[in-house]
Design a protein that fits this description.
single chain; 252 residues; mainly alpha; two-stranded antiparallel ribbon; 2 strands; 69% helix; globular; transmembrane helix; membrane; Folate transporter FolT; transmembrane
Length: 252
C-alpha cells in the first residue's frame, strides 16, 4: 500500500476525519481510567492506533492534525471532569506526527532496513529502566506505590519479566514470509515507530504533564505508566501491522 496522495483532497480529509472520530470514541467513550494513589492519571484505551495510522498513511502533517483535533474535540465532548491542558493536545498530536516522520523518511530512502537489532536494544532499555524504577520505589518510598517490604515489588518484577519474554518473542520469533521483511510495513518498522511515539508521548510527556497538574514528582506516576506503556506497545504494533498487512484501510 502506498502513501495516499495530497493531504487536503476531499477523500484524504474524509478518511482522516473518520480516523480522528474513531480515536475520540476509543479514548472518550471506550477508554478505562485507572487511578494511581487516588489520582486519575492512567487511561487504558486504543485511541493511539487511528492516530498512528493517520501518520503512517498520510504523513506527519496528517498525523499531527488528527491528534490535535482528536484531543480538542474529545475534550469538548467529554472533559472527564478535568480542566483542559494544552500539553495533552501536543502529546496527542505528536502520537501521529512521529510515526509519520519515520515512514516519510523510509519512503524517501529506498534501502531495505531491518530494525530488529535496534528494536531489541530499545526493548532491553525499557525493561531494564522499568525494573530499576520499581526497585527505586521499593527502597525509597514508604507511602508510594511500593513500600520497602511490599511483596508486590516481586509481582511487578515478575510481570516485567513476562513482558520481556513477550518482547523478545515479538521481535525475533516471527519469520517474515514473501516480501514482508522488505516491505515498508514490516513488523520491525511498525514496532520502531510505535516505540518512539509511545515513549515520547505517553511515557515522558504525559507523565511530566500529570506531575505538573497534580503537583507530584515525575517518579510518583512513572511505575504504573511505564508498565501500561510496555504492555500497550506490542498490542498497538500487532494491531497496526495486521491492518496494514491485510490492507484493511487500503480503500479508505
Amino acid at each position: 500500500m502506498k502513501q495516499k496522495g495530497a493531504l487536503f483532497t476531499t477523500k484524504a480529509l474524509a478518511n482522516l476525519s473518520l480516523l480522528t472520530a474513531l480515536s475520540i470514541i476509543l479514548s472518550r467513550v471506550l477508554g478505562i481510567s485507572v487511578p494511581i494513589a487516588g489520582y486519575t492519571a492512567l487511561k487504558i484505551n486504543f485511541s493511539a492506533v487511528p492516530l498512528i495510522l493517520s501518520g503512517i498513511c498520510w504523513g506527519p502533517a496528517a498525523g499531527f492534525m488528527s491528534g490535535a483535533v482528536a484531543d480538542v474535540v474529545g475534550y469538548m465532548l467529554n472533559p472527564a471532569g478535568g480542566a483542559y491542558f494544552p500539553g495533552f493536545t501536543l502529546s496527542t498530536a505528536l502520537c501521529g506526527f512521529i510515526p509519520g516522520v519515520i515512514f516519510r523518511c523510509l519512503r524517501s530512502n529506498k534501502k531495505a532496513y531491518n530494525f530488529k537489532f535496534l528494536n531489541a536494544i530499545l526493548a532491553i532499555l525499557l525493561i531494564a529502566g522499568a525494573v530499576a524504577i520499581f526497585i527505586y520505589h521499593g527502597q525509597h518510598m514508604n507511602n508510594g506505590l511500593i513500600s520497602p517490604k511490599h511483596r508486590l515489588l516481586y509481582g511487578y518484577t515478575a510481570v516485567l519479566g513476562g513482558l520481556a519474554l513477550a518482547y523478545m518473542f515479538l521481535l525475533f520469533f516471527p519469520k517474515a514470509k514473501g516480501k514482508d521483511i522488505h516491505s515498508l510495513y514490516s513488523l520491525d518498522k511498525i514496532f520502531f515507530a510505535v516505540v518512539l511515539s509511545q515513549i515520547t508521548t505517553s511515557l515522558i510527556l504525559n507523565t511530566w504533564f500529570l506531575s505538573i497538574i497534580f503537583s507530584k514528582g515525575f517518579l510518583f506516576f512513572l511505575p504504573a505508566r511505564i508498565l501500561n506503556t510496555l504492555f500497550m506497545i506490542p498490542v498497538y504494533t500487532l494491531i497496526i501491522h495486521a491492518l496494514l498487512k491485510r490492507e484493511i484501510i487500503k480503500n479508505l
